[in-house]
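Supplementary Methods S3. Complex input for the magnesium ion-bound model.
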Amino acid sequence: MTNSSIALADLGWSAHFMMQVDGHELEQFLPARLSQIHRNRIEALSPQGALTLTTKHQDSTGEFAVGDWVLVNPEAQIEHRLDRLTLLKRKAAGVEAKVQYIGANIDVLFITTSCNKDFNIARLERYLILARGAGIQPVIILTKADLASDPQDFEAKAQKLDQMMPILTLDARDTTQVDSLLDWWRPGQTAALLGSSGVGKTTLLNTLAGVEESTAGIREDDAKGRHTTTARGLYAIKDQRWLIDTPGMRELGLYDAATGVEAVFADVLELALQCKFSDCQHDEEPGCAIQGAIGTGELDPGRLKRWQKLEREERRNSETIAESRERRRKFAKHVRSVHVQKKILDGHGDR
Ligand SMILES: Nc1nc2c(ncn2[C@@H]2O[C@H](COP(=O)(O)OP(=O)(O)OP(=O)(O)O)[C@@H](O)[C@H]2O)c(=O)[nH]1
Ligand SMILES: [Mg+2]
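Predicted complex, serialized as structure tokens:
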């Protein structure tokens, strides 16, 4: 093995990426992993050290995600992005129907919340849908256990979502406790931290990596953070592990998440299959297995409501994003045809 191939493996390079590149390309281009995306430039890590890249032609930096593998040409431009193993995406915050990439080529998602007012089952379900939909192993991290009188209560509530779910309850500043994250994340793998502002994502990164990314105190009354981290970034952790820190999320809009919803609400879906009518609305129809399970206390009525809400939202977001993509595509086609017509009228057209 050459030095550079060792460095590539250290960065998380694997057979999945190697198979996409031929020898000729490797002579011409340098593989690199994106570590920060800005409006006009992209930071990356490579066997030749840190690089600042630009995109080719009209490619927007928004097409790329932290964690992506790319081939870089000698002009320090991104020649080509390699197919991703996994991609975390959401509906961008705000009214516009757009997709936002959270990170790519992630193996483990550390869904982070605190043992305080930030803890919210509906929000945890959303994060789990995101992870399951993307085929990424979720691990729930409950921080600030040192400040709570009843951290086990929070843990028990989270465990109800899935009996098999790994849950780590800890003080994010304590190195020994935080080392338990390493059990879920092998060398060469990439994990990402997701959660609201102030829950301790950057504190976990600092404790794990020994780096000093800035953190800040939260408001005491509602436990809300101050949005200290402003950009997603990929960082090296011990033994060739990689960690993506993200800014706190105010909202997590679902997009293209139908399989995630199905996986997280498998218990409800299984009951729905047993309803007498295939188009049962789980309201007051006779023979409704879901209402039956609510009646016996087997199913929490809140969970039915959350499932119905998420299903509606997922469908609406996916439809509006598909529609606005189609609108943009038609508009771009129109602009191109106007451009061609103008060229012909000006006498510059192909003859
Ligand atoms: N006591 C205690 N304090 C913690 C713990 N985790 C984080 N904190 C504190 O909580 C505050 C917010 O932590 P950050 O790491 O900045 O939170 P964040 O999730 O990165 O927030 P954003 O960057 O805004 O998304 C800091 O003052 C941390 O020291 C914990 O487990 N116990
Ligand atoms: Mg932070």
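DSSP finds eleven helices and 13 strands in the chain. The first strand starts at residue 30 and ends at 37.
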